[in-house]
Design brief:
There is one protein chain. By secondary structure, the protein is α+β, with helices and mostly antiparallel strands. The chain is 56% helix and 8% strand. It has a four-stranded mixed β-sheet with strand order 2-1-3-4, with helices on one face. Residues 217-221 have low confidence and may be disordered.
């Protein structure tokens, strides 16, 4: 690996990996993509992320950066001559980090219940919690075009990858009905941002991937 080379270890359907790919696209960064087999993890992945052994991993200057939100921040700081993803104001930056963390700790956790559970009561519990969390996010979005205001940024990247996953199909609900502003925001992200439209896969592909995961031992994707 050349010293300045950027490499991404990832799996295409990963909503965490999508965050990194969107951030790289927003910054116009060229990188080498290496698809991982989560059933047979590469020696490079195990070497670069020996603690969690998970994707995504960004390798820059032969050094690994792990965890999607940390990677997005790293990308924003290293390539800071290009449009920033995080606000420059310390308070606004702290708020952006808070909401991104909320997605990972609350929204994603309930979403896993929708995707993973074969028990109807657990799935319904997950669906209820998931929708409640989305309504909280919708309240934070308000009437703004994007979470940070007029420009696409860090919180949008943290949330938008949920948009293409199969929560609606498996949870039997409509995002457009439950959270119309959030639904419109998702469409706006795709229509106005090439980094998003070219990264998010079709929901049918994600649905097939999720069904496959449910037949295997669980791995964070």
């Amino acid at each position: 690996m050349a010293d300045n080379k950027v490499v991404l270890l990832d799996v295409l359907p990963s909503l965490f990996g999508m965050r990194v790919r969107i951030a790289l696209a927003e910054k116009g960064i060229e990188y080498e993509y290496k698809e991982e087999d989560l059933k047979n993890k590469s020696s490079l992945l195990l070497e670069m992320n020996p603690i969690h052994k998970k994707i995504p991993v960004l390798i820059h200057n032969r050094k690994p950066v792990c965890e999607s939100l940390i990677i997005v921040e790293y990308i924003d700081e290293v390539w800071n001559e290009r449009a920033l993803l995080l606000p420059s104001d310390p308070y606004q930056k702290a708020q952006a980090r808070f909401w991104a963390d909320y997605v990972d700790k609350k929204v994603y956790a309930f979403g896993r219940k929708i995707l993973d559970s074969n028990v109807e009561e657990e799935k319904e519990e997950g669906k209820k919690g998931f929708i409640e969390c989305l309504k909280v996010l919708e309240g934070e979005l308000g009437d703004k075009p994007y979470f940070g205001g007029e420009t696409f940024g860090f919180v949008d990247i943290a949330v938008v990858t949920l948009y293409c996953w199969s929560y609606e199909t498996l949870g039997n609900f409509s995002l457009e009905v439950e959270c119309p502003k959030l639904f419109s925001w998702g469409k706006r992200c795709i229509e106005k941002n090439e980094s998003v439209s070219k990264t998010l896969p079709h929901q049918h592909k994600i649905y097939d991937f999720v069904l496959g995961l449910n037949k295997k031992p669980k791995a964070r994707t």
